[in-house]
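Re: your question from the hallway

Yes, I did run it. Sequences:
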Amino acid sequence: MRNKYLNPYIGGVLLGLVLLAANFVSGRGLGATGALRDTIATGVKAVAPSHYHNAAYYSDNYAMRTERPMNSWLVYQMLGLITGGFLSGIIAGRTKLTTERPSWVSSRRRLFFALAGGILFGYGSQIGRGCTSGSALSGMAVLSFGGFITMMAIFGTAFALAWFFRKNWI
Amino acid sequence: MGPLIVYDAISSNTNLLLAFFIGIGFGFVLEQSGFSSSRKLAGMFYGYDTTVLKVFFTAAIVAMTGLLFFSLFGWMNLDVVYVNPTYLTSAIAGGVIMGAGFILGGFCPGTSFCAAAIGKIDAFVFIGGLFIGIFIFTEGYPLWEGFHNAGFMGSPRVNEMIGLSQGVFAFLLILAAFGMFWAGEWAERKFAGNYR
Amino acid sequence: MSTPPVTHSGTNPVTGNQNINVMQKINPRILLAIILIPMGLIIAMVPEDTTGSRKVSTEQILQEISSGSQFVSPDEVAGMIVENNPVLQLIDVRSSNEFENFSLPGAVNIPLTDILSAEWRDILDQDVRINVFYSNGSVHANEAWLLTRQQGYRNNYVLQGGLNYWMEAIVNPDPPSNLSPDEEFARYDFRRAVNSALGGETVERTVEAPPPPPMPSIRPRERATVVQGGC
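Structure:
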């Protein structure tokens, strides 16, 4: 059974139950980028405290509200996510330091596009108030109109651009 | 009655502890489903692997159905559950930018952490990119603050927008999801050759 | 002749195997559809939202505003103060400076800016007492009422006309003219009585405010704030 992935429908049901549990326990969905933003706010607070209290974003969203930006639900959830992913990788024998790429794509090229994609995703997630998990998946489960819009925009754009970047993947 | 935190059934520290366990479930299921592989994720957009579609929509309809039944049984007050507010302009613009990031990077934020946890170097780089992107956003916030807050519509639910009850919309979404699953399996057979 | 093989609890091992094979052959997608589609059908047919909202709809608040049911008159409030009615809780929504300078007896100071802070929720969201907001005019008090009403809190009211009208009506009432009906005289007498009970003719209070009535224990209720979430 090593290396074999879970049936996607069973995986989906389990993920749905996790999402249901998050809503039942904490009244909110899952998320990812919020924890990164909290981390950045903490970093800025440590490195440049005056900037942290003056710059509009941090003062509006953090300095006025909370002493410890990292003490947030999403940060603990993300620590769990990393732990859970690692446990699953150990059990399935998939932990390996590697750059995953098709054979004709150089490592450098793959890493360059990963960085570019990360920057876009990070920026877009803040503009759109949530990523695939926080806005699209969690939003859809509670029938949020914004969640559906974001979901369609993410997948629609990715499909529309797929042809231009096909050399990276197929 | 749920959500537990709203009705003081658990303390806020317990809530954070449970967040950690919920996260473990989240990460475990993502990794088990193969979301730690960028090639598997990108397969969605070239048809050779529609795992993303199946897991994503199955999770959404299971959680949605579960919430509606919890509400029906009086176990949970859906009115106090967080519903993402809708800022139409930024929801679309953010989604478009994220979609571009998805096809370039091959991950979304949650899955990149999952992949990094099992040692994918491209995922570490993607996460580095996420930090840069978010940092650009927070530092340049005054530049796009107006845009970020444009098109505010409150927190409408999608069924209200199209004039259906929650239940009817949920039923239609479930049917649509199975339609997409069927199309996905068809695509996997047709485009299997795309994965080399 | 040999004895038939022993079977465990009556099941045929061969058919049992076949059942397992059948289970394995069912596509998880089909299985999921068999479960979820009927559940969706049920959810589509039952009336929605049986738990209901504790929040108040905008329409209902609008109706309350247009009927003015949130206002209580100075006379009613004065009467309750004189009686030392423990149900009355006056809430001064002005700044703490203004509150220090002058306040009605037994009032607590919750400046308008703090009205939604969690600190005061147990006072504002309860079923035991009658909270009466007051400010100089009635605008700020009314805003406080509107904000708390939107949270679904009940038992909050607004002192009609605010302190300005209170001064006019209770502290320095105009004597009614000779042609006034008897009830005008009765009200005037009542107001004079109240005023002397509250400490005399002047605006400045000359006696200590009566000790605040014993607080009935306010039981914190189920809260109904929307959770903050998002990514």
